[in-house]
């Protein structure tokens, strides 16, 4: 097999139980976090500050209704922000120096994820119009009350969750392993996204549980007012690198 083909080798199928496997990823990620505590917390803190700034702007400009779609969009774009963390984990594993193998291709994947996020936000706006017409958007508190206290709101929440879930699943499938791969391998972005998608389908139960783990941790971060994002985001970033290493380099 030539070097180019080897760079595009498919993911392994991990046969072990999913829960211990994910526990190992988190344990290794925790080790990376402890070994790089200052950088890791600074990374998470910077993202929390950005999140607070976005929430403030949306609230101050009367766009509170956009908070929930924006949070969903942020989850789609979140993997891009972990590239620096992958470099730290890769260096600790002895799989290369601190550089990025394919920075231009990471930009390509970022653009694809941004298009997905913007499409989701547009879809959320259209869904609101379908269920509530062209009425002015209320504030965040009023939007929550409308969502959970009216038949139209509950229907919008159910349909929006299903549609948003499809966007999130696609974003997760193409980005979960493509970004750490592009930090490590000099291949094109579309091949990396295809390999990432293949890895999630070949290890569907494991990928589903890992996606649920990420969602729960991000949800806890949101409920804490983004305080928990400071330690949990770098932990998830490091753990994702170890997931990639298990699937593609193990």
UniProtKB/TrEMBL annotation:
The chain crosses the membrane at residues 37-58, 64-86, 106-134, 154-183, 204-233. The keyword Cell membrane does not apply. It comes from the Bacteria. Keywords: Membrane, Transmembrane, Transmembrane helix. This is Putative integral membrane protein. It comes from Tritonibacter multivorans.
């Amino acid at each position: 097999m030539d070097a180019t083909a080897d760079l595009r080798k498919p993911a392994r199928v991990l046969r072990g139980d999913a829960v211990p496997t994910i526990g190992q990823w988190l344990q290794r990620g925790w080790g990376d976090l402890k070994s790089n505590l200052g950088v890791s917390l600074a990374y998470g803190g910077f993202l929390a500050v950005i999140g607070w700034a976005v929430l403030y702007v949306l609230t101050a400009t009367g766009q509170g209704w956009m908070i929930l779609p924006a949070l969903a969009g942020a989850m789609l774009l979140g993997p891009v922000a972990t590239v620096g963390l992958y470099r730290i984990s890769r260096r600790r594993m002895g799989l290369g120096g601190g550089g990025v193998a394919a920075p231009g291709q990471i930009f390509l994947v970022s653009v694809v994820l941004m298009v997905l996020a913007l499409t989701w936000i547009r879809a959320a706006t259209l869904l609101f119009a379908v269920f509530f017409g062209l009425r002015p958007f209320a504030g965040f508190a009023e939007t929550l009350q409308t969502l959970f206290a009216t038949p139209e709101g509950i229907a919008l929440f159910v349909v929006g969750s299903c549609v948003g879930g499809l966007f999130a699943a696609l974003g997760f499938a193409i980005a979960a392993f493509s970004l750490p791969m592009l930090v490590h391998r000099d291949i094109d972005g579309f091949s990396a996204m295809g390999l990432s998608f293949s890895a999630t389908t070949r290890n569907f139960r494991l990928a589903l549980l890992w996606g649920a783990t990420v969602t729960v941790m991000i949800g806890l971060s949101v409920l804490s007012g983004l305080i928990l994002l400071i330690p949990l985001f770098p932990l998830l970033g490091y753990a994702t690198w170890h997931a990639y290493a298990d699937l593609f380099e193990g």
